[in-house]
Structures are given as structure tokens and as C-alpha cells.
Amino acid sequence: MRRRFSKGIIAIIAIVTVLAVAITVGVINLLNRVTRLAEATEGCKIVTPEGSLDLEIEQAQVAAIIAAVAARKKLPERAVVIAYATAIQESKLVNLPDGDRDSIGVFQQRPSQGWGKPAQLADPVYAAGKFFSALVKVKNYRKLPVHEAAQEVQRSADGSAYAQHEDEGKILAAAFTGRVPKAVHCWFPAPTASPKTTGATKAPLPAPDRARRGLARVLGPNATFSTTSEKHGWLMASWSVAHAKKFGLQRIRYGGQAWTSASGEEGWKPDAGAPANRVEIS
């Protein structure tokens, strides 16, 4: 004999089911929110008149390297915009260990197509240099649409895809070339402990020395934190902020402004003593 449920019982079952689904969705949303908050303990913010972007620290480091390599080669901002649009499409500004077929790195360059050895292409400094060396050979690249110039270098299956990242490229270029002052700030948790050494292990270089070596890899062996222009100073200041976690920098001062790791999320703050002729790191 089949049991029949009254309309009231069916209504109650329906309400309980809806509530169960709602509670489940609420729990999932809460867990996602907690995850996002945990992930937000570090990151970078780019703010310019062109717009703003949120980046992971690794993405900011790659962006800073690309702009610095362009500066070393004395290339215009347009070249940097093209490089960013390309790198965002190819890797989301992440130094990927692999990709389609034998593609490697930020620009997904292929050893089999003569871009370089795998170990070289895994170095963003080298990869950016190879990209720009190819870009400057493109006739009238400054006047071409961004996606056309990028496609002339990359020869990808769908060159039109680069166009969608032009606006992001302009924001990043305005910030990391130094054209817009104090446009980059990052934040991250303080290290829990200092590196330990033994009697047989050399003491690590101080953070400023490690940062100077890192800068010299990008801008050239004779590079220092002395500035040749306000724009050049802010390029180095932005590079330093993006690499502060990597090298252990706690404070960066330049042009009447200061950034500290202790209050990194608050961005740059006025500092009357910050020099105008050099970027001061500590």
C-alpha cells in the first residue's frame, strides 16, 4: 500500500530542502571568503590614472623585470605595453615551467624555434630581453596596433587575443616604467625567523646588498640605486617594492615618499627626508 503525504508534510519537506541547500551554499561562500582573506595576506596593488590592478607578488616581480629590461635597452613605453599584453596572454605574468609543446617561461618562448635553451627561457630577464630584441626588428612596431606588433613577434595561433590585454598593459607600463610616481605597493607577512648559519656556512648577504645584485642583473652590472631622472628613480623604487619580499627589504625611500613592509598595504607615505637623487633601501 502506497503511503500518501499530505500537502502540509510536502511543504515542510520542501522548506527543509531549500534551507539545507541555502545553508550549504552559505557555508561554501563562507569558506571561499575565508580562503580569499587568507590569500590576501600578501599581494600588490597598482594604481595609476589609467586604472588599477591587483597582482600577486610573483606577477609584480615579473612586471618590474620587464620594465627594467626595457629601460636598459632604452625602449619607449609603447614597447613595454606590447610586452605586457603579450605576457598576460601567454602566462598571466607568471614564469611558467612549461606550456604548449616545448613552450617555457613568461612569454612561452620555444627552444625549438630558436629562442634559447630551456634554462635561459626560464629566466624572466633573459626572456624579456629576447622578446624586446625581436620586437625592435618589427617595422614600425610603435605605430602598429598592440596585438599586431605582439603577433609579429610571437607568431601564435590567434594573434588577436593579445588585444584584450592592452588596457592592462597600459596600466602596468605607466606604473613600472616610473612614469607615475608611487604607483606600486606590496604587502606580505613578516618573516617568522632569520636564516641560521653554521660555522661552515657563510653568513647571508644583507638585504640591501642582495637587492643591489638583483638590480644589476636587470639594469646592467654598473647599475646603482642613484637616479638619472625622477622617472628612473620611480622605476627602481617600484622594482624594489615588488622584490622586497624576495630580498628581505623593510623600507624603501625616494622622492619625499617612503614604503615600509610593516605597513605595506597602506602604500607610500610622505617622508620629507626621502632623497630625490637616489632610491634608499634597507
Descriptors for this entry?
282 residues; globular; alpha+beta; three-stranded antiparallel β-sheet
- Residue-averaged pLDDT, rounded? 87
The proportion of residues in beta strands is 5-15%
* Annotation, overall tally of beta strands: 7
Sheet of most strands? 4 strands, antiparallel
What is the percent of helical residues?
40-55%
User: Low-confidence parts, pLDDT < 50 over ≥5 residues?
Assistant: 24-38
Distance between the termini: 83 Å
Q: What is the H/E order?
A: HEEHHHHHHEHHHEEEE
Q: How many structural units, i.e. domains?
A: 2
Structural class: alpha+beta
In short:
This protein is of the alpha+beta class. The protein contains 10 helices and 7 strands. The strands form 2 sheets. Strands 6-5-4-7 form a 4-stranded antiparallel β-sheet, covered by helices on one side. Strands 2-1-3 form a 3-stranded antiparallel β-sheet.
Give an overview in words.
- This protein has 282 residues and is of the alpha+beta class.
- The chain has 2 domains: 45-176, no CATH class; 208-281, no CATH class.
- 46% of the residues lie in helices and 10% in strands.
- The protein has 10 helices and 7 strands.
- It has helices spanning 7-39, 57-72, 77-91, 118-121, 124-135, 146-154, 166-176, 207-219, 230-242, 244-247; strands spanning 43-48, 51-55, 184-187, 251-254, 257-260, 269-270, 280-281.
- A 4-stranded antiparallel sheet has the order 6-5-4-7, covered by helices on one side.
- A hairpin with a 2-residue loop joins strand 1 (43-48) and strand 2 (51-55).
- The protein is globular and about 50 Å long.
- Mean pLDDT is 87; it is low at 24-38.
